[in-house]
Specification:
TIM Barrel; 4-stranded antiparallel β-sheet; about 40% helix
Length: about 425
Amino acid sequence: MARSLYASTNSQVEVDACTGIPTAADLRYLPLGLLDSDWQITHFGGDLAGDYGVFEVVVRHVKQNGTTIVERTPQHMERFDNDESLAVKARVLGAKMLRHACRSLTRNGGLPPAEDQQWHRNRMGKGETRRRQFANASAIRTPLMSAKSQVLQRAFQLFRAGATLMLLPYIAQKRRKLERQGRAPVTILYYHGVGNGAESWATFPLEMFDRQVAYCYWYSKLIATSDALDGLRGARVHDAAVVLTFDDGYLSCHTNLVPYLTVHRVPATFYICAGSAKDHLLFPHDTQRGYLNCRVMDLTQVAELRDLGFEIGSHGMYHEEMDKLNDADLRQTLADSRSILQSASGSAVRWLALPRGLYTESTITTARDYYEAVFSAHGGYNIPGRCGFHYQRFSNPVELHSLAAIINGMHRLRPFGPDDRNAHSVM
């Protein structure tokens, strides 16, 4: 079940699709009844035809005299959608449908039934769900790594997870000490595409992203980039926090991610390649690997992100490696990207995320003339007093235990320590 809520003519009963149902509610005191949402798979398609199936989200009106389906919305499935990812999508879409149905119900005192009242709980079997999860997860970064490298990386991740578990008392003590001093670490994560279409090697499955957001919510504090910078520059951060950022501006973020973030009220920053968005161009680093369906957002969709309250930053024009640009080309890229994004979003673009995290000292120095902060991509914690213009980010970990290790300070097995590869230019 995606969401449930009670609807009533009594204004004292709270109705909120995001927070759920009142604990002491009873249908006898709520004459308009109960609204709930659920989902089913209505059609399985064939992979070769590009038709991967359809699932449907419905809103049901439960009253003392029976249940009526009042709204149903079909949605196309992605190639590697499974029961977990469909449940996340149904939760997001169901919340919006419940809001709409609840408003109509409280205004009109009733809802017209949908034409088709048939309902069958059609789900995938466990075997098919696991096959799709494995196929989607195996697409993440594996084209970039040999089998031996994958085994070594997996061994290191498991070792780090074990070390984190054993050192938890020490790590917790150090974290509490930093928080008391107002020097709590801010961990910035960056992702690329999010969805179950495996559009590129960097597309992160939605159900895995949902689990990571849940972990961050329960064991840390999710904040916006602007709030993080205010605390870091003010040299006082009293609670360890996590910031979510998304690079390149893939269309899957607008399709799958933005509705999720909006319903769950999760702050995020999107770093957009302005030239690619303006000219509707694919990235060479995707097409050269055979990923030909990695579309990016256009400038209208970028403006929608800003209208929804998300923050926008620059990621260059066409994903340039800025350490290789001469001074004139670098300045042109920084200025043009900022100008295009500011015109599209109608707001100031103050931050730059370096494509692939590549930079030189002159890159950082030149960026100061155009932006208030730059973000690299090699890992490391941001602690008040340790940084002021250049901030460090972690690439999104695939496994949940890797995320737990990073958030708990065990990057490179050095609890909340600086990253040597960034230390020379942390300013």
